[in-house]
Amino acid sequence: MDQVEQQARRYKRSGRWAMAIAMMAAAVTTAPAPALARYPDKPVHIVVGFTPGGSTDAVARLLAAKLGERLGQSFVVENKPGANGNIATEYTQRSPADGYTLYYTSIGFVTNPLMYKSARYDPAHDFTAIGQVMSAPNVLVVPANSPYRDIRQLIADGRKRPGELNFASSGTGTSVHLSGELFASLAGLDVVHIPYKGSGSFMSDLIAGRMTMAFPNLPTALPLIKGGQLRALGVTTRTRSGAAPDIPSIEEAGLPGYDMSTWYGLIGPKGMPPEVVATLSDALLKTMDDPDFKEKLLQSGADPKGSTPAAFQQFINQQTTAWKGVLAKMKMEGN
Fold it and tell me: How confident is the model at residue 173, as a pLDDT?
């Protein structure tokens, strides 16, 4: 075989090898990618900014159980109390945006940045909204052995004794605190605010008569009212609550213009994957339609809500605007 023929055969063989290598490379690049893990494939943590025992914690645990049933994975409540939820908010903000750290938040989420320069976040842009869960009135309560039997009597005595009456709250900037400040402002009272770390913390002192009054969430206070340990003078919304129709509104009981309610919802860190948000939103909306879940909220004095992520973010933005005006009037903005 001459040299020319041998060279031709070598080129032919190398061409076949090149073709085979090219075909294998094509097979690798066109092979289906491994399937992404279905969310959630590990426990999901729901952060709560208050201690166990209050209504916020109780509803968060009920919600966690329902979401876990629906999505086939554990949802675990993680309490991180302090600074009116700021500790929990900042923890959530720093967490990975993978859907495994969520935050059951409330009205303090929008009021904190308005009240405290140390709250360095923007509710409109720094988180991912998932959906609103509920709203609820607060209720003005006094100890069962209190001399005050109605709001007019309380206001009249408070005006005679400036600085002597007090009210407890679950923390500065909470709805429980703001309800008391709004009451004092509209009634023209000088009262002392005593903040605690959560509603469960101050209830024992209130029941024992060491506090004049408080404005806890109705779901927290209702069992104690029914049990005769606290006396209710009025709910903070303009209309009575269906869960406690015998309790008048503060406005109808003697303080015109008073109106206050709190709300709760689910958010996560900024930049969560859209498919994860969609999964959580769908599960939340279906949970809000769950008859057992709705009934438990209604019996506690809460109003079940449910909303899309976009609608909840719009609500948060509206709340921020509204509270900015209210806090400015009460001279509680930007401390």
Answer: 84
Average pLDDT, whole number, for the chain?
89
Q: Which fold has domain 139-253?
A: D-Maltodextrin-Binding Protein; domain 2 (3.40.190)
DSSP secondary structure string, 35-67? PPPPSPSS-EEEEESS-TTSHHHHHHHHHHHHH
Sign, CA dihedral 254-135-168-113, equals negative
DSSP helix/strand/coil, 142: strand
Cα 144–chain centre separation: 30
Q: Which of 72, 78, 74 is nearest to 44 (CA)?
A: 74
299: tokens are 């019996």
* Cα–Cα distance for residue pair 16/38, rounded to 1 Å: 43
What is the model's pLDDT at position 9? 53
For 125-135, b/e burial (b = at least 16 CB within 10 A) is ebbbbbbbbbb
Contact between residue 67 and residue 75 where contact means Cβ atoms under 8 Å apart: yes
In whole angstroms, give the CA distance from residue 204 to residue 218: 16
* Whole-number Å distance between alpha carbons of 51 and 64: 16
In CATH, the number for domain 44-135+261-330 is 3.40.190.150
> What pLDDT score does 223 carry?
94
Domain residue extents for the chain = 44-135+261-330, 139-253
154: left (phi over 0), alpha (psi -120 to 50) or beta: alpha
Structure tokens at 99: 């859907």
Residues 6+ apart with CB under 8 A from 116: 86, 173, 335
pTM beyond cutoff 0.85: no
Q: Which residues of the chain have pLDDT under 50?
A: 1, 4, 8, 11-12, 17-35
Query: How many angstroms separate the first and last alpha carbons of the chain?
Result: 97
pLDDT digits (tens, 9 = 90+) for 297-319: 998 888 899 999 999 999 999 99
CA 202/CA 211 separation, integer angstroms: 9
Determine the Cα–Cα distance for residues 40 and 47; give it in Å rounded to an integer. Answer: 17
